[in-house]
């Protein structure tokens, strides 16, 4: 961290005046230094070829720090992964902060460093940005927005329209890990085993899949908020299709599963980071899984179900003991239904 | 001589009505016709006024026992001539407004015939007549004629055909008529789907032998398959429990006959009448002594009552007669999903649960479970637990303020039932299973489609529960979009209250009514989970007067599955209770759950079901339950034991507060229970005092509000002891209203939704 003559964020840091410049000059610009930023334009001037994907994401999470990661990394990966799910190779990001007066500069710096690291991992450049400061109590430490553009892969034909009955549903790694990690910190629940959040960029993995399997990858989804259940229900509802899942095949870490049980959570509804779900042509499903398993952080990739033509609009899971349950689209929180 | 027309509506088809009319007309030597159409039964005849009016009167008065007449009229018509008296088939009306006959239990005459070896139908497992046999489960379309039911593939042999067309025969115009020459064929198969006994007379013997060997046989009955085995064989029952993943939920038993049942069970006249009637439901009964011929501990672990039924089909009659001992007979399904009725699914989904299958080649069009009924022990108040075979799908209660609209009420979720108002008739479907299960959603949707096809109607208004995550709500929304229907969501407990109000036509009366609506879970309009509700009905409006004080909802649905969590949520600030509870949790659970509670939860509950769970857990009855209501049922059982064993029942209540505004405190109940436990008061006594306290609570609230009428609804009132105590202690002081036609549990939500929509001022509910 550079030496600064302040250790907390004040309203002045968002005024656009001297303090703002001080903050940006000494820290941010230096940290993210690249050709675009050096131009000091009001915006970035980019050169893009072919089909371009564009996405945005805002991050208002609590806590902002959690096992092994923080909101900064999440903010980069969020937009990077949204672009990846479009079959695009992310190139440039914008980065905007809304800081709450009183945020510790050390915390802010740690977040900035994470952002830099995450951007490097994903191979994206931060080319424009903004910082505002709000009065204490008007925010929650830090809100981040990122937007990004990326070039769509030549082989990509990602669309719900291409999903057909018979297609297989794959997840790239164990589910529910992130949500449980966040919860353990937020609720102040000290678990004996520390479950680490697994946020990471997925674009390289996606690119590898598209290089190999191209248009046989029919759909990619990032099952973040609302978990797998929500994205699967969206597919069933919007695609007028049915989805069958098999509980036995859901990859989930033992500790995560035990904690879900302990907390009465259905892992299908728990938020994920760092994994994606793919709907692929049946013939390549095994190969996709084999390929994924060789990639770091995808060692638990599995076929978890398939798209079907019966029970349109419904996601149905076959439990380990054979009963079939409806995985409904949750509206709001997980409210009790049992009498 | 004038030409007269009689039109009769109600349950008048499939109950031998036309043959009855024919015989009566023939006796009087009348010329005319009788025919069914979609609006009921019509009779046209020539007679003088002096003959016509007494004939009309007699016709209505002496109607067949299975018939239920809801409307009738006589009027004059233009002249026409008839030759003799004839039964005709006519289908003119485009829309149906008729009751659907339910499936009737075997009648006395048919029972005699089937057991008589020299009768032409001796040992024919599908004997029926105009007074008995399946109806609703066979109906493909209307009216109830041979070609419209699942017997259409069976062509009557000449002898059966002769019976069918002989006015003197008791099978005259019996649509289900058949015999072993022309009728339904049994097939007994092993798990490779190979028929192992082609001779149908030997099939009965073979099944009996299999039961003796301790085998589990899936039998295709009226509304679906039942899993059966010897009820005295503890080992087999354990195997069945294991295969079905049903550790302790009680199994129903089928006894060979009424006199056998009377030897082992305490059966009142009311109960006996119910067991042997045309509905022949499962009735919950007490065993006389421990040495019964069933393995009680495995049939109904921890309970003093078992569900008992008598053979209600000729097949069961033959099987049980040959076996001479009670059998287990439980719906073939996985968990609480709907009963399996398709042959193919028995071999796929249920493979591994049964050892042999006794099937037949008659299609089950509409699936149904067996109805379940219990009676409170003192007042013999009937309490429907499940309204299904023999009772569904007609609703005979009053339907006030009939709109001409077609209204579909989607009901709740765990005990799914839908209701359909069409042409001023209200159909209330059979219990269709827990909508958390896929099979139940299929059966719910299939039955709903079937109804709309049968009646040829489209809903104009769709009523749903407010719970955003009920499947019935979600599906109701979809249907509203498809049909362009108006969608109205109705609060769960308001619907319960409206249901009981409508059963007794209380909404039409000026007096205020207090509603005691107690259940496990219902979504409240404040976003909390309601369940211990005191509502009022006044000037056409339902309002929430008071409720059990809120406790935090933690761990989602897990809370309802584990009474220990309810106990914790109710008493985490009570150190004495915490001493009792600590050992019921792992160290990690204890730490985490208390932290969650200390943090404060945004969602809260006033559930009476959870209070029962909490008390049951504190008393050490159970920490986690394996079926809905298990802890409450065990608590009732212990309280009932105390109630019966002590000659002088002390009137000690844990409830001290006299007047209530809004919140009825539950902590004094928890404190009282815990204190008594510390003093060493017996568990049975505490369980009883808890029940008594609830009665006191009701009395106090009723006195505060000056209500004379109290109406009860919600799953908690399946508790027969509570019903007895309420009647015993409050019966003289108040007018009490309990459900009769429908169950107090969520099966009545569909009825309640309709009643609420029709009769309650509801400017605020449309969403
Ligand atoms: Fe309810
Ligand atoms: Mg986004
Ligand atoms: Zn009969
Ligand atoms: Zn015949």
Automatic annotation (TrEMBL), chain A:
Cited SUPFAM superfamilies: PurM C-terminal domain-like (SSF56042), PurM N-terminal domain-like (SSF55326)
One family name in Pfam for this protein: AIRS
GO biological process: protein maturation
Residue ranges constituting the PurM-like N-terminal domain according to the UniProt record: 41-152
Domain PurM-like C-terminal as annotated: residue spans: 164-315
Entry similarity comment: Belongs to the HypE family.
Protein name: Hydrogenase expression/formation protein HypE
Source lineage: Bacteria, Pseudomonadati, Bacteroidota, Flavobacteriia, Flavobacteriales
Gene of this entry: hypE
Automatic annotation (TrEMBL), chain B:
Enzyme class: ligase
Pathway given in the UniProt record: Protein modification; [NiFe] hydrogenase maturation
EC number(s) per entry: 6.2.-.-
Name of the featured protein: Carbamoyltransferase
Active site (catalytic residues): 18, 36
Sequence similarity: Belongs to the carbamoyltransferase HypF family.
Domain (YrdC-like) ranges: 201-390
